[in-house]
C-alpha cells in the first residue's frame, strides 16, 4: 500500500515574502541574501503572486527596464496555485507539473505557513522526476519540427537542400 504524504511533511516552513510594491533591486537582494530562487508576493499579508529569478531576467533585464523603477507587482506571476498543508504531495505535484509552476505557497486556513518547491518534491518523491521527463518528451514529440538545412545526408551521403534531423542525424527526404 502506497503511503500518502501530506505537504506539511515536505514543505519548507516559513516563507520569504516580498511586498508587491518593492522594487526589483530590493527583491533581488532578498533572493541573494536568502540564497533562494523565488519569493511569494504579498499585499497586506495575503499571497497575491510569485516572482522568480527568471521573471527578473526575462521581464526586467532582457527588456532593458530600470530595476529601481520596476516593482515586483509589475512582473510577478499571478496564476497562483495555493495549497493547504494537509493536501497530498502527489496531487499538488501533479498540479504543479500541469500548470508549469515550480513553487506553491502552503497555507493553514488563511495563514501562509510554508512553501513547497520542485526540489522539495524531488527529495520526498524521486519518481516525480520521471513523470516530469515523460511530460517533456511527450511535449517534444507533439511539437512540429520543420528545421532543415542543406548538406550531405548522413545515411546515403547524397547532397540535399532539405536535410532534417532525425534521431540526432541529418537525413534527406528519401532516407527519413
Q: Biggest sheet, in brief?
A: 4 strands, mixed
> Which of globular, elongated, flat, extended, rod-shaped describes the shape?
flat
| The CATH architecture of the largest domain | Roll
Tell me the fraction of residues in β-strands, as a range: 25-35%
Structural class determined from secondary elements:
alpha+beta
What is the CATH T-level topology of the largest domain?
Answer: CBS-domain
Q: Return the CATH class of the largest domain.
A: Alpha Beta
The main sheet orders its strands as: 1-7-6-5
Calculate Rg over CA atoms.
22 Å
Q: What is the CATH H-level superfamily of the largest domain?
A: CBS-domain
Question: Roughly what is the average pLDDT, rounded to an integer?
Answer: 84
- The number of helices is 6
Order of helices and strands: EEHEEHHEHEEHHEEE
**Unreliable residue stretches:** none
Q: Summarize the amount of helix as a percent range.
A: 25-40%
Count of DSSP E strands?
10
Alpha-carbon distance between the two ends: 47 Å
Q: How many domains, as an integer?
A: 2
Amino acid at each position: 500500500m502506497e503511503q500518502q504524504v501530506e505537504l506539511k511533511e515536505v514543505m519548507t516552513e516559513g516563507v520569504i515574502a516580498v511586498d508587491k510594491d518593492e522594487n526589483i533591486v530590493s527583491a533581488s537582494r532578498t533572493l541573494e541574501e536568502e540564497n533562494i530562487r523565488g519569493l511569494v508576493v504579498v499585499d497586506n499579508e495575503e499571497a497575491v503572486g510569485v516572482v522568480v529569478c527568471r521573471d527578473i531576467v526575462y521581464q526586467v533585464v532582457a527588456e532593458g527596464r530600470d530595476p529601481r523603477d520596476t516593482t515586483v507587482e509589475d512582473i510577478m506571476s499571478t496564476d497562483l496555485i495555493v495549497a493547504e498543508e494537509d493536501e497530498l504531495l502527489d496531487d499538488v505535484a501533479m498540479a504543479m507539473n500541469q500548470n508549469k509552476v515550480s513553487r506553491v505557497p502552503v497555507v493553514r486556513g488563511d495563514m501562509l505557513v510554508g512553501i513547497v518547491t520542485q526540489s522539495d518534491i524531488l527529495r520526498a518523491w524521486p519518481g516525480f522526476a520521471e513523470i516530469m521527463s515523460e511530460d517533456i518528451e511527450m511535449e517534444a514529440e507533439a511539437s512540429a519540427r520543420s528545421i532543415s538545412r542543406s548538406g550531405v545526408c548522413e545515411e546515403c551521403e547524397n547532397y540535399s537542400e532539405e536535410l532534417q534531423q532525425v534521431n540526432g542525424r541529418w537525413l534527406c527526404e528519401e532516407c527519413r
